[in-house]
């Protein structure tokens, strides 16, 4: 349920926006549908999201699938490590059981096809239980990215906490857009130089890491700022005030509403 008081405060304080802030649906519209499923991605676009964010991993037999955790335990009716299951085993699991709707773990390829068909964008996060596994996932991802249709390439952004995986992809695919992910372990550390060293287009800091000064310094260095994960009306409003370029949210429609209404006042005739 929307908290109207929070929404009114947020709308009243948003200044005129100088750019179209990208609304990224975090693992799809995961507040309303099972995360990282085709249903969540379709719903995200129906809610007005410009892009989806999702996580890519490898099955035991080397196929690229969309799932966040190292294990299937939390999001499916199965148990065990993703990397120890074959594609056939993963595809028999129900990723929507807890939501009362049957969903399969998506293939990367069918996710890309959905995004292209809808004319939208995607942020692929390269996952792995270690640096080595993340780099191996990047290795498997490279030929898929190389084969992307020309019209889709500019709409694909790849990110990872494991920066060597990004370095590998950027070295092999100079055109690829990449974003350096930063979690809480980066608190108090420089977020700018590592991204520049990767030739990244953006930093992707956790919301709690970000300050207005970091946004300013990123922009001075020519970097975009895409923030995860902002869900409250007030937090999204503050990020808009700071001038970030992208916001990842479980409620992508909130980003769309705030960036669109800007100074609108709720309840006025």
Sum up the structure in keywords.
269 residues, alpha/beta, TIM Barrel, eight-stranded parallel barrel, 10 helices, globular
CATH topology title: TIM Barrel
CATH superfamily: Phosphatidylinositol (PI) phosphodiesterase
Quote the beta fraction: 15-25%
Helix and strand content put the structural class at: alpha/beta
The poorly predicted ranges are 10-18, 263-269
Count all strands and give the number: 9
Largest sheet: 8 strands, parallel, barrel
Helical proportion, percent range? 25-40%
What is the string of helix and strand elements? HEHEEHHEHEHEHEHEHEH
**Spatial extent as radius of gyration:** 18 Å
Strand order of the largest sheet: 1-2-4-5-6-7-8-9
Question: How would you portray this structure in words?
Answer:
The protein has helices at about 5-15, 40-45, 85-90, 110-120, 130-145, 165-170, 190-195, 210-220, 235-240, 250-260; strands at about 20-25, 50-60, 65, 120-125, 155-160, 175-180, 200-205, 225, 245-250. The longest helix has 16 residues, at about 130-145. The chain has an 8-stranded parallel barrel with strand order 1-2-4-5-6-7-8-9, surrounded by 6 helices. It has 10 helices and 9 strands. It has one domain (about 5-260): Phosphatidylinositol (PI) phosphodiesterase (TIM Barrel), CATH 3.20.20. With about 270 residues, it is α/β, with parallel strands linked by helices.
């Amino acid at each position: 349920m929307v908290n109207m008081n929070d929404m009114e405060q947020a709308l009243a304080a948003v200044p005129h926006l100088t750019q179209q802030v990208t609304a990224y649906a975090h693992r799809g519209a995961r507040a309303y549908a099972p995360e990282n499923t085709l249903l969540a991605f379709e719903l995200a676009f129906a809610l007005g999201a410009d892009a989806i964010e999702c996580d890519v991993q490898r099955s035991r037999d080397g196929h690229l699938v969309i799932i966040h955790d190292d294990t299937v335990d939390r999001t499916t009716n199965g148990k065990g490590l993703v990397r120890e299951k074959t594609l056939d085993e993963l595809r028999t699991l129900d990723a929507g059981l807890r939501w009362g709707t049957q969903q399969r773990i998506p293939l990367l390829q069918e996710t890309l096809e959905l995004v292209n068909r809808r004319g939208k964008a995607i942020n692929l996060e390269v996952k792995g239980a270690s640096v080595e596994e993340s780099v191996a996932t990047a290795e498997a991802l490279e030929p898929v990215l190389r084969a992307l249709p020309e019209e889709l390439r500019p709409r694909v952004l790849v990110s990872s906490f494991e920066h060597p995986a990004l370095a590998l992809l950027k070295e092999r695919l100079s055109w690829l857009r990449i974003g350096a992910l930063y979690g809480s372990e980066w608190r108090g550390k420089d977020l700018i130089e590592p991204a520049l060293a990767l030739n990244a287009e953006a930093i992707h800091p956790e919301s709690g890491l970000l300050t207005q000064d970091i946004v300013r310094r990123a922009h001075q260095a020519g970097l975009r700022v895409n923030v995860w994960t902002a869900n409250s009306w007030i937090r999204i409003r503050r990020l808009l005030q700071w001038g970030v370029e992208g916001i990842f949210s479980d409620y992508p429609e909130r980003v769309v509403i705030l960036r669109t209404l800007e100074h609108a006042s709720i309840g006025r005739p």
